[in-house]
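Duplicate of #3305? Posting structure anyway:
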């Protein structure tokens, strides 16, 4: 083991295993995750790491081991495929959940065990604006079929991931059967027998290469009436239409996957922090004091400033992901029982947190890569591949700006309810106080009150202020004679800013609440330090907001930076131990820089020597192109 890494792991001030258990949701979950990893994957003789041929093996193994829990499926898949996406991702996280949530019982029993499918909602002309989708589904009572059709070039289904060129079970979203409703269809087209279908691949992408994203053009293709997913809405044999309790129930799968993405952003950021911090512990470069040995780059304050706030953010997003999934499970359970009262809140929370966490993680991955210098740019680090695979999460499952505006819609509605004298509950209850809060600068000492509860309050006041400013912008636009829609559009910068602040407050609050639940003194102490770092770092980034909200004075601003530097120094001794607690296996991390043993250089040389370009002493291109040219010169 590299001596630096060895030294970093001595004198631990907290129990790493207990922290890993907290991240997994308990010791039993940690044990199960490791059992899947060590026994069912790594020690499985059929396990052929990450090669395309192992995809069928993986599916059969999941069935053989009876792994059906989505989290356990993901544990298994992430061991098979490491940090990359794979072709079946969409099947497990969108196609199956849609069947689970939108099929009636007869359809469920008929389809769920049997098929692998994709989710074809986006069209070439519309991905965000679902009410603009053009694919038609016209019911023919004479034959009891729906006629599916792509009337325009922009209506061609574009992007469905993992579409199988031979068989196309896919979930469709098609334009309204009635005034404002959408419906989902399962279409089992078997190619090439089924005429009227034109499918293909949309061509090379930025990345995401393991997933074949395709296109699908339909020319009056007929499918049985029974292929409409009929849990919430039905078309009867006589063509009559039974409307769902809410037209937004059709959007349920997107809410589910957005909820999953929140925790996934934490996982991806934790992977990158593991790589960058372990590497920073073994990399020596330059000098701090003339004549002394080159220091570990982790001892540079700028390196700590790059990485430790991201480390805190990774923990924050992992805890936010746990909260999000718990909230999703609770509210979707109520929805299943016909209680839709919290559906708007679930939508607003999942949409906002999906955007907030993926934007932050997306930027954070690049900070981790650049903090590793040239070796961060090598594919051996895994960081370029992680970035390429993660960055579309800011676009898919709801483009982030649009998602932030959905959350803003809920915030504005809540604000208007407070103005009308209603008492709010849930995540926006802090808006109840927006009119009674003393927003003038408080007489506070130049020292910053570092109590975590106080910091959460300051973020709450900041969010409330920005919600009020956005609402005032809309009111001012209206007062200038703008229609409601233009008043909204002319305020969307403020609205996104308010949603961002609301999500930032929510994430810090979740982090604080999780820290409060930690009983082990050592773990509680280090997690409390990270939560403080998360809060103070955000205050440093958005100082203007806190000054404008009157919760920070000019005299206190220097203490924000001073406090930040102190917290970076406080995290330094535990940094490697904190990424060890994420418990990412070398095989899954697949990074020369992030190896648990820290033996980076030896592994990097072996990795380079294994490159296809090094298979022969002299590359064949010399003999094929250069040598003949030399002969002519
Ligand atoms: C364990 C594994 C972890 C892995 C995780 C990551 C793995 C990811 C792998 C997958 C990778 C790639 C696959 C990608 C797939 C896709 O991208 S599928 C397509 C995704 N597309 C979208 O998300 C479309 C986005 N657009 C929309 O959702 C809607 O068009 C939008 C919400 C923007 C607007 O809808 P409208 O119908 O126009 O509604 P609007 O007029 O704005 O509002 C009316 C009203 O409705 C409420 N509303 C809107 N949406 C919802 C909802 N989903 N639930 C509840 N309520 C909703 C809205 O708030 C309004 O309410 P109000 O009371 O009137 O204000
Ligand atoms: C890797 C990848 C995989 C995908 N897989 C699938 C899949 O399996 N199935 C599927 O159905 N789809 C899939 N998609 C498509 C994806 O869902 C859409 O790309 C996404 O919903 C965004 O829609 P769009 O492409 O139409 O972007 P647009 O909405 O056209 O966005 C373009 C710009 O317009 C802005 N904009 C749009 N509307 C508004 C508004 N109301 N207010 C302010 N700004 C606005 C956006 O902010 C953005 O800046 C995938 C996409 C990617 C990148």
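Output from current build:
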């Amino acid at each position: 083991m590299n001596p630096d890494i060895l030294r970093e792991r001595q004198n631990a001030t907290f129990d790493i295993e207990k922290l890993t258990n907290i991240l997994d949701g308990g010791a039993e979950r940690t044990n199960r995750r490791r059992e899947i990893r060590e026994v069912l994957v790594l020690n499985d003789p059929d396990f052929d790491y990450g090669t395309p041929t192992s995809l069928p093996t993986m599916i059969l193994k999941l069935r053989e081991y009876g792994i059906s829990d989505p989290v356990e499926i993901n544990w298994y898949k992430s061991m098979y495929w490491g940090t990359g996406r794979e072709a079946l991702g969409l099947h497990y996280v969108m196609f199956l959940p849609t069947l689970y949530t939108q099929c009636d019982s007869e359809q469920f029993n008929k389809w769920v065990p049997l098929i692998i499918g994709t989710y074809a909602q986006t069209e070439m002309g519309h991905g965000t604006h679902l009410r603009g989708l053009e694919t038609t589904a016209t019911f023919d009572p004479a034959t009891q079929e729906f006629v599916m059709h792509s009337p325009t070039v922009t209506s061609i289904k574009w992007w469905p991931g993992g579409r199988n060129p031979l068989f196309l079970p896919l979930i469709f979203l098609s334009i309204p059967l009635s005034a404002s409703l959408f419906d989902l269809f399962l279409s089992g087209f078997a190619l090439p027998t089924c005429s009227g279908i034109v499918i293909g691949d949309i061509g090379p992408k930025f990345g995401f290469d393991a997933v074949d994203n395709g296109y699908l053009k339909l020319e009056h293709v007929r499918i049985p009436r029974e292929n409409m997913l009929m849990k919430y809405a039905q078309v009867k044999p006589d063509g009559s239409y039974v409307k769902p309790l809410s037209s937004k129930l059709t959007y349920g799968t997107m809410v589910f996957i957005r909820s999953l993405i929140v925790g996934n952003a934490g996982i991806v950021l934790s992977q990158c922090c593991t790589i960058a911090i372990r590497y920073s512990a073994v990399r020596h470069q330059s000098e701090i004091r003339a004549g002394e040995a080159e220091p570990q780059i982790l001892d540079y304050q700028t390196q700590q400033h790059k990485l430790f706030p991201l480390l805190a953010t990774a923990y924050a997003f992992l805890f936010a992901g746990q909260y999000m999934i718990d909230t999703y499970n609770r509210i979707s359970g109520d929805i299943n029982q016909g209680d839709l009262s919290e559906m708007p809140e679930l939508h607003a929370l999942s949409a906002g947190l999906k955007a907030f966490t993926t934007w932050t993680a997306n930027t954070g991955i690049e900070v981790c890569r650049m903090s590793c210098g040239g070796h961060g740019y090598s594919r051996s680090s895994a960081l370029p591949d992680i970035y390429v695979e993660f960055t579309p999460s800011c676009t898919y499952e709801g483009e982030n700006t649009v998602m932030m505006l959905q959350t803003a819609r809920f915030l504005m509605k809540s604000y208007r309810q407070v103005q009308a004298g209603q008492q709010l509950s849930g995540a926006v209850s802090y808006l109840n106080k927006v009119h009674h809060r003393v927003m003038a600068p408080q007489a506070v000492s130049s020292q910053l009150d570092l109590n975590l509860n106080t910091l959460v309050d300051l973020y709450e006041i900041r969010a409330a202020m920005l919600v009020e400013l956005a609402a005032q912008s809309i009111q001012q636009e209206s007062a200038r004679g703008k229609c409601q829609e233009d008043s909204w559009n002319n305020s969307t910068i403020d609205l996104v800013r308010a949603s961002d602040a609301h999500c930032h407050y929510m994430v810090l609050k979740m982090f604080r609440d999780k820290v409060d639940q930690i009983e082990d003194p050592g773990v509680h102490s280090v997690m409390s330090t990270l939560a403080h770092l998360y809060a103070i770092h955000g205050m440093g980034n958005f100082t203007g907001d806190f000054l404008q909200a009157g919760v920070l004075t000019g005299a206190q601003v220097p203490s924000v930076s001073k406090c930040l530097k102190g917290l970076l120094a406080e995290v330094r001794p535990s940094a490697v131990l904190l990424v060890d607690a994420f418990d990412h296996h070398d095989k899954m991390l697949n990074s020369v820089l992030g190896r648990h043993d820290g033996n980076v250089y030896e592994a990097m040389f072996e990795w380079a020597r294994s490159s296809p370009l090094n298979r022969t002493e002299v590359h064949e291109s010399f003999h094929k192109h250069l040598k003949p040219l030399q002969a002519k010169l």
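Confirmed duplicate; merging threads. Residues 301-336 form the longest helix (36 residues). The chain has 23 helices and eleven strands.
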